[in-house]
Amino acid sequence: MSEEIRFTVNGKKRVVRAAQNTPLVYVLRNDLGLKGTRLGCGANQCGACHVLIDGQSVPSCDTPLWAAADKNVVTIEGLGT
Fold first, then answer.
1. Disulfide: which of 20, 45, 57, 78 matches 66 by Cβ 3.0-4.6 Å?
2. What is the pLDDT of residues 19-39, one digit of tens each?
3. What's the average model confidence in pLDDT over 57-79?
4. How many CA atoms lie within 13 A of 33 on its CB side?
5. Alpha-helical segments (H) within 1-81
6. Residue 81 confidence (pLDDT)
7. Angle at Cα 65 formed by Cα 59 and Cα 69, nearest 5°?
8. What is the pTM of this model?
9. Which residues touch 56 (CB under 8 Å, ≥6 apart)?
10. What is the distance between the alpha carbons of residues 62 and 49, in angstroms, rounded to a whole number?
């Protein structure tokens, strides 16, 4: 069942409709078009998918969408801006 999730990505407020357990990496890449976050191993081993959530580095392949609700997410595209 999909739900509306609100969060901020690279300084922009976003709303997406997806299942709460959808991996964050899928939402970032497929729904928001942020291709800088890569899906490498899919098992939280390689670091290719890491993003910052409220300043903490987390593997977006292993982080469900609900964990980003009402939080600030920064991807590689948002660094240095």
1. 20
2. 999 999 999 999 999 999 998
3. 97
4. 1
5. 24-26
6. 57
7. 110
8. 0.92
9. none
10. 9
